[in-house]
């Protein structure tokens, strides 16, 4: 009972004003009233996909790794004497945080709700599966092998076994398949939507959760398409041909409502001045004259100019670069999947020849249009017809050593307009470049797609403090297993190393990473 109460009663927002009393005063019967025993843990799981109310932890959970590695953002702050994740001087205590938050705040809550729901509450059971996969695939895409199928099942020696990343992905597909079947049956039978009071994304709409699960399944299928072609095809086609489809309307966007709390990136940027625009964002968005630019970032000192910071450079003091472009303030919600992403996934599926994927060009154009619609922009046709604009050379006004001039191989030359006569690789680069723009500020997914495809072209670090474990030209591929596991689960984590394609360091590619 103490475990249940601890899981349920941890927040301090307006949603929990009536619950912020001694948790041990609640009986299980009271918690079951209104399905709270299952609903409150899943509410917490949504809020902690990216921890919403603890910006210092959120900064270490994602911002000081994936948000930087994706090219979206860069801190002007020379953390740890300018020897930190940004220049591959990986800081172990930082890199425990994605693991700790996901297992402590999401996996635990989902498994608790899943176990309580059982067969008696199939809707909550299915919902828990979807949230669990959303959280745990993100974690696997950081570290590789993770604890998934063996979670909560210690061995005789109290170690808990890891799944390889391939095994974990297969479990993800199985869980999404189960969840969509359950919810589809409930929709078809006209079942009452019971988890609405706890749903911070779709307000209890089972159909929208099915669409999200299908799109998530498609995302994961495309992710493994280079390494496991037959499995990828089967899973992608199952998602594409489901009768309820994938994300398609703007209110299908997967955003967690965190109001009244502000977005943690706003705190990092404005309260701490620890976050600014990334140099690749400046290069691509200014080069394309992209109308999303002023909706993503703020011009420098009231001018019409935007400046981003290149990753992994010499920074002696925060004041050097703190005057560069801030992020435009984000709303009180955290977005993990857009409708635009769904269209770009379909576009790539079409390139791969998957049944139900449609036409690549049409999907590409719809993806850009969906992103424009998300930001209430109307000039999408003019943008899509442009065949001359390219990423702009990058100039660092503080240090010319950081410049990326025209002709540099790391400067993208891809244009916007679709060219049906282009080769498949050029088409893929167009799709992923626009997908990268549209997914902002979701750095985790952007970093994963860059590692998988090499697109969009990003700028390598100038300073590499990895001691040779991360080749500069190949970029960082993963985070090493968290140090907490070597203390609390040493035998299992040592065995998990055998699942890797190399040593346990940032230079070793994940299973699906074929570059």
Describe what this molecule looks like in 3D.
The protein has 515 residues and is mostly helical. It has a single domain (2-269, 278-499), classed as Serine Threonine Protein Phosphatase 5, Tetratricopeptide repeat. 45% of the residues lie in helices and 3% in strands. It has helices at 2-8, 28-32, 36-47, 55-69, 79-82, 97-117, 122-143, 165-188, 206-223, 229-240, 264-271, 279-287, 293-296, 339-351, 360-374, 380-384, 424-439, 443-453, 483-488, 490-496; strands at residues 73-74, 254-257, 276-277, 333-337. Helix 7 runs parallel beside helix 9 (206-223) and helix 9 crosses helix 14.
Any chance you could write out the topology, listing elements then pairs?
Blueprint: H1 2-8, H2 28-32, H3 36-47, H4 55-69, E1 73-74, H5 79-82, H6 97-117, H7 122-143, H8 165-188, H9 206-223, H10 229-240, E2 254-257, H11 264-271, E3 276-277, H12 279-287, H13 293-296, E4 333-337, H14 339-351, H15 360-374, H16 380-384, H17 424-439, H18 443-453, H19 483-488, H20 490-496
Antiparallel strand pairs: 1-3, 2-4
Helix pairs in contact: 3-6, 3-7, 4-6, 4-11, 4-18, 6-7, 7-8, 7-9, 8-9, 9-10, 9-14, 14-15, 14-17, 15-17, 17-18
Say what the CATH topology is: Serine Threonine Protein Phosphatase 5, Tetratricopeptide repeat
Second rung of CATH, namely the architecture: Alpha Horseshoe
Please indicate the count of domains.
1
Taking the alpha carbons of the first and last residues, their distance comes to: 48 Å
Strand content: under 5%
Helix content: 40-55%
Cα shape: globular
What's the number of helices? 20
Radius of gyration equals: 22 Å
List segments where confidence is low: pLDDT < 50 over at least 5 consecutive residues: 1-26
